[in-house]
Amino acid sequence: MSNKPYSLHTINHEMRDIREQMSFSQSALGKALGRTQKQISEIENGLVDPTPELAIKWFTALGAFEHVDLVHYIYDLHPLAAAPVDPRLNEDLDRAILNLKKQIKHALDSIEKIEDWISDLRPGRVTEVPMNEFKEIYDLGPGMRTTLYALNREFGINLRSLSDDWTRKSLSTRVAMPRYEERKLVNI
What we know:
This protein is mostly helical and 188 residues long. Helix content is 60%, strand content 0%. The protein contains 9 helices and no strands.
């Protein structure tokens, strides 16, 4: 077992805590998820382990999008999944924007340092990769997501609709990876 700050052993507590914070009863959440109150109780009490899909549906139904990121992290669903930014740090959009702005400045400084590192690379010369600089760039992902989550919390912006609109725009301008049907098979 890896040494992670969150684990499968505590996800049921997170699920219960968020449900209670959002003032949902077990019955109401069960109805939203197509489950019974008893099934919700069994999950919250650790008698049944939730699947990643159920945990994602659970947190999505409650609007706890940072916790969807947490599911990706706990279940190792993506190699770049990380523990999400605590939503209390970005309760409102102003704080989220200030945090993101600070992260962007750090990332820009790090990009300059990485460019210097790359320009100093020489064949046969062993050099250490500046991982702290890459971490600053990596931190932009969670910072950007939590800013959009704050936008959803404060202004009710539908993140799925927003994402779909941006994806359509990216596809039409050929910035996004083409859909499977659009890819052409090449005979070799």
